[in-house]
Amino acid sequence: MSREVSAAKDDLEETGGSAAAPAATHKAARSEAEPQRMTPMMAQYVEIKAAHADCLLFYRMGDFYELFFEDAEIASRTLGIVLTKRGKHLGEDIPMCGVPVERAEDYLQRLIAAGHRVAVCEQTEDPAEAKKRGGKSIVQRGVVRLVTPGTITEDSLLDPARANLLVALARRRTGEDSYAYGLAAIDISTGRFTVTETAAAGLSAEIARLDPREIVVPDTIYDEPALRDLWREQRAAVTPLARDGLDPASAERRLKDFFGVASLDAFGAFSRAEIAAAAAALAYVERTQLAARPALSPPLREDVSGTLSIDAATRANLELMRTLSGERSGSLVSTIDRTVTPGGGRLLAERLASPLTSVAAIRARHDAVAFLLGERPLRERLRQALSAVPDIARALSRLTLGRGGPRDLAAVRDGLAAAEAVASLLASAAPPPELAAAAEAMRGVAPGLAENLSAALADELPLLKRDGGFVREGYDGTLDEARVLQVDSRRFIAALQARYVNETGCRTLKVKHNNVIGYFVEVPPAIGEDLVKPPHNATFVHRQTMAGAMRFSTTELGELEARIASAAERALGIELAVFERLGDAVIGAGEAIKRAAEALSVVDVTAALALLADDLGWTRPTVDDSLAFSIAAGRHPVVEAALKRAGQTFVANDCALSPPEGEKAGRITLVTGPNMAGKSTFLRQNALIVVLAQMGAFVPAARAHIGIVDKLFSRVGAADDLARGRSTFMVEMIETAAILNQAGERALVILDEIGRGTATFDGLSIAWAAIEHLHEVNRCRSLFATHYHELTALAERMPRVENATVRVSEWKGDVVFLHEVVPGAADRSYGIQVAKLAGLPPPVIARARAILDELEKTEREKPVATLVDDLPLFAAMPPRPAAAAPQKDALGEALDGIDPDEMSPREALEALYGLKALRAERDRH
């Protein structure tokens, strides 16, 4: 395969000077000052690159995209492809590398994943036209598209189960030093367009909920010192954007112009920040898509108060969308995903990321799941019909942008047929409102379109429309005639070859074709010598002499080649016209098709959640406006699934955080017990049950009664942030501070081992004060796991604090974890037993036991438990009974009975052996 077209073949040869400066550092001034020193091709390259300096430039040359200078070096390192050299610049070789056009999507995927942006520069004219102009004319080229993480549409670059969101930010001042932030989220691959507004304190949580692939930020916000850490911690690419043309008036005008409306009122009421963010998102989309116009839905306003607020740290701790290592496998979404369509997978993830706080909306989803749970035959038929549904929304988007192919038309065809089938199944079953609305959206979409697509499209379809062959035989008579001509021409070639064999007597004579000289007759040199002589030279015209062969042309072959080329070109032209007509019909019905695609996703998610509940025995939770929190036999869905694969059973546990009678604030449960006993699992499972219940799913519990939770906080596990100079303890304190400053009565707070990252008394003091704050100020439902057993005394002094512990059993000096959470408090942490299970060397374990014994028998100057009586919060409460004085052990008593001055050497030796025996006995216990 050639890496240069003929019109550009000599472009890189030096013509009295250098080519260009490095791609990333070239200045426009230099290109203007040195135009005479550049080859025509490099002058064109520099001009295009200067306009897209922040992108890697994919510069089309024939069958390859080439990269030069620093772009080539970056691409070579990132893609692992060979870095070559081509021509010179200022006496030095020009770095160059390239990727085949037919494999460009694979390489784009890797570059985008590495955080790069790519400008795709195509040849905008036929190389033959450049040849006609003569001289040093080169093929005209231009950037047709910018490829960025938030604006990709190709299936090979997208995760089918994840929305590919571009999020743009704007803000408005709400006070002297306070702002409200508008966020606009566009998924160009499906056309979804939403906006919302949040206070500054909720900005990080809202970005985490959306989980975008790319964030567009006005440079004034991007440079804000208080927000630098926020941009640094994002997994998404963050792109600063100049504020030019984004003032309120021009922002509103951009939106109205794009959607062709005189007023935005038809779409709802938006704040100034939301309008500015929406306009910024549109501006970026238009910049990256150039002339292509995506089929975006009108902006839909999402009320941030309508969803359960979950901050970024909590999402990471609970592993909702990905594990702490960044993998989808092992996360909650991967565990519960039973969907069978790409759109259903994305909707499930969206619902899991944004649980509701509206009781009515949650109950509507539960009603739908309960209906399909009880209608198993219907559910199975629905899932069978859904399994044939392709990614309609993304296929429609590609067709609208002009990047679609025959398979995208087929996706719409198959999706519409499946929508009719699903709607018919639901219509015969009297479903609840959510499913009834979905059925209505799928009924009668674009009448006749699916049938027309079925009639037009062949059974086997190419990926690209330019390859042809996608229109069914019999659909277009003119096309069929052109195809017959192609077939007949090939037959004529075979007949012509047979005639030439008879005329020359050469059985090895072949009629062949290549792109350089077209059709030709090829014979061995011995026969060729005869063909250049009369009488054969009247028919055969010599063209080439090769090693081992001679080539000739004939008048008949030339005429035949023209007929074949004309027939093929004509056939492809007819097919492309058919494609355009079908594409226009699909785009014209775009809004109805999008609604049908969304409805199919709703049915898919509902059926998947019903199947999940049926398979795993999950139950419908009771969700209301109270502050109740009562879970009977709750289970951790991810851990239970892992244990099931290993042939083990999960131990279910109850959790009660409902307010005591007469109170209007939730309980705090202090959970104690050894490491590895399951405290963190217990904490997380109750948080996950809330998320599942409020997203509209059934839950892994025998019974569940949950009063709406509006904010969910989880501080579980240990992690540092060395890049920002934060130790594990600092990260822990920052996350704890966020919880204590934001949690209200409707929040659910999960805290694990607060204060363990610092000195014992410092940590105990912090944990103690945090519990007081949760009890007296936040007044929220909370689970608080701790190894500070002294804190369990707070349950006797604070009316809404209760103790729970994870049961363990000891057997021959080892600890056995029972994973059962029961009322009460642990008296020790069993740390040494756990260390033994972990494989610490026996001498270390023995020494640790000895040190622990010494520490436990050492009386502190003031036992921590007695501090309760000295704190102002507890001054009026009854005093606790005094702690009993520590007992002397047998070794101490034996030492008290020894008087060395009165002992003989033999008695002293016997006493020493006796003391050693007592110590050995004590160490065994």
Verbal overview:
The longest helix has 34 residues, at 555-588. The protein is an alpha/beta fold. α9 packs across α10. Strands 13-23-24-25-21-26-27 form a 7-stranded mixed sheet, sandwiched between helices. The chain is built from 31 helices and 27 strands. A hairpin with a 5-residue loop joins β7 and β8. The model is unreliable at 1-36 and 874-885 (pLDDT under 50). Pfam families: MutS_I (PF01624), MutS_II (PF05188), MutS_III (PF05192), MutS_IV (PF05190), MutS_V (PF00488). Residues 747-763 form the DNA mismatch repair proteins mutS family domain. Residues 1-10 have a biased composition (Basic and acidic residues).
Write the layout of secondary structure elements.
Blueprint: H1 28-33, H2 40-50, E1 56-61, E2 64-68, H3 69-79, E3 84-89, E4 92-100, H4 104-113, E5 118-123, H5 127-133, E6 141-147, E7 166-173, E8 179-187, E9 192-199, H6 203-210, E10 214-218, H7 219-222, H8 228-232, E11 237-241, H9 248-259, H10 272-289, E12 300-301, E13 309-310, H11 312-318, H12 332-336, H13 342-353, H14 359-374, H15 376-386, H16 392-400, H17 406-427, H18 433-442, H19 449-456, H20 477-504, E14 510-514, E15 518-523, H21 525-531, E16 541-546, E17 549-553, H22 555-588, H23 590-616, E18 622-624, E19 629-634, H24 637-645, E20 653-656, E21 668-672, H25 679-695, E22 703-707, E23 711-715, H26 728-742, E24 748-752, H27 760-778, E25 781-785, E26 801-811, E27 814-823, H28 831-838, H29 842-857, H30 890-896, H31 905-924
Parallel strand pairs: 1-5, 7-10, 9-12, 10-11, 13-23, 18-22, 21-25, 21-26, 23-24, 24-25
Antiparallel strand pairs: 1-2, 2-4, 3-4, 5-6, 7-8, 8-9, 14-15, 15-17, 16-17, 19-20, 19-22, 26-27
